[in-house]
Design goal:
Elements: E1 5-6, E2 10-11, E3 19-25, E4 38-41, E5 55-58, E6 70-72, E7 85-89, E8 94-99, E9 107-109, H1 132-140, E10 150-154, H2 163-175, E11 180-184, H3 193-201, E12 207-212, H4 218-225, H5 230-243, E13 247-253, H6 262-272, E14 278-282, H7 289-292, H8 294-297, H9 305-317, E15 322-325, E16 349-350, E17 367-368, E18 382-385, E19 388-391
Parallel strand pairs: 3-4, 4-5, 5-6, 9-10, 10-11, 11-12, 12-13, 13-14, 14-15
Antiparallel strand pairs: 1-8, 2-6, 3-7, 7-8, 16-17, 18-19
Helix pairs in contact: 6-9
């Protein structure tokens, strides 16, 4: 798991104070007139520091006198590289990584506020003024690499930003026109057609909204999200978005409250929402409210394979684009292997000791780093036996 922030910056020289969002470069020959906006990342402490940069970040004391806005970072951030974007708070000696050029899993948390209160929320909502996040994002987007393949937008509930969300989408379209944007939302705000039209009118060339539906029965969905009337608003929101030609992905987190009716939900989607662009059937992340509601939510993925297989078959027969996220390959019914995707963000993706020596690790979705709290007792590596790859069983309880 990568560390994305540090409160241990050590000033090496004079600092101008304040909070700054800056792009990193390792290019000693960076064009002189533009150096004042960049931070030079020192990977080789034996060379003299080039002049003219706004600041300098290194991991060891450098040769020669320190420069202005020069900081020494902890070794855990050594992965930082050319083109990354960081937020530097000089007063608090704090650094946060906002964007990594080399990663395919960049995402922005837009707000921690939410109008749902999901049983398994991995980012529990907070009622506070977090409008500074919008300013940070709008300052970051223009200095991101134009080669960025995709960026995610998440929360909280992004639609609570209203017009500020529109401003973020427009900035992404203008500065990163070739970058796909995927936003997570509960979809309720789009039950108002005017807002669905506002998002559509941004006309981003590659934009999709991932919206959760947890049951074909409204009362079960509303219970999972802890909000009365949420199911009706969500379905109406999806219909409005598709009427406005916005791409929609349906997301289903599978747990003890949702697994049993998974085939019925798939039938509901096939009959009523077949025009949606993707369906993602997702494993549970052991963060946030999931920890406190674990006994209500946890079920070993091995136990719901019949329901998962039937749901996938129902959707696939309807020619819907369906994927399985956040699951370990060795737990899946073999007929589902081709639907499995490596979906966990690289900075929080891990594998367990039981995975050592597995021949198919490169195909496996792996684990969230939080899965150490509890994971399946049936994890087993694929071994080569008699020219075939089969799982070798050695189940062990994990709590």
């Amino acid at each position: 798991m990568l560390k994305l922030h540090s409160k241990e910056m050590i000033p090496c020289g004079d600092c101008d104070g304040g909070i700054h969002i800056k792009r990193l470069t390792t290019n000693k020959a960076f064009i002189q007139p533009l150096r004042g906006q960049e931070v030079f990342l020192v990977k080789d402490s034996t060379i003299p520091l080039p002049d003219g940069f706004w600041g300098y970040l290194g991991f060891e004391p450098s040769v020669g006198p320190a420069k202005k806005n020069h900081y020494q970072l902890e070794p855990s951030l050594f992965y930082l590289g050319d083109g990354d974007v960081v937020k530097i708070d000089s007063a608090k000696r704090y650094l946060r990584v906002l964007y990594r050029k080399s990663s395919s899993h960049n995402a922005f948390l837009l707000t921690e506020r939410c109008n749902n209160y999901c049983l398994m929320c991995s980012q529990p909502p907070k009622e506070q003024d977090d409008s500074f996040i919008i300013r940070d994002i709008l300052a970051t987007i223009p200095i991101m690499s134009k080669e960025t393949v995709e960026v995610g937008l998440t929360g909280g509930e992004p639609t609570l930003l209203g017009d500020s969300l529109i401003a973020i989408l427009e900035s992404l379209k203008n500065h990163l026109p070739s970058t796909a944007v995927h936003m997570l939302s509960n979809g309720r705000a789009f039950s108002k057609m005017d807002f669905a039209k506002k998002v559509s009118q941004v006309a981003h060339p590659d934009f999709m909204i991932g919206i959760p539906i947890y049951s074909d029965i409204s009362s079960i969905h509303d219970y999972v999200v802890q909000a009365d009337g949420a199911f009706d608003e969500t379905i109406r929101g999806i219909l409005n978005l598709k009427a406005c030609r916005v791409k929609v992905e349906i997301r289903v987190v599978i747990h003890k409250q949702t697994y049993d009716r998974l085939p019925d939900l798939a039938t509901f989607i096939r009959r009523n929402l077949t025009f949606c662009d993707h369906v993602a059937l997702m494993g549970l992340e052991m963060m946030g409210f999931t920890r406190s509601n674990l006994e209500k939510l946890w079920i070993d993925p091995k136990e719901y394979q019949p329901q998962l297989r039937l749901a996938v078959e129902t959707l696939a027969r309807a020619n819907m684009n369906v994927s399985i996220y956040n699951h370990q390959l060795c737990l899946l019914d073999p007929s589902l292997y081709k639907f499995n995707r490596k979906s966990i963000s690289d900075w929080k993706n891990e594998y367990m000791p039981e995975c050592d020596g597995c021949l198919r690790m490169s195909e496996c979705g792996g684990f969230f780093s939080s899965a150490k709290l509890r994971y399946s007792s049936y994890i087993k590596p694929f071994r080569r036996q008699e020219n075939t790859e089969t799982p070798q069983a050695h189940p062990a309880e994990r709590i």
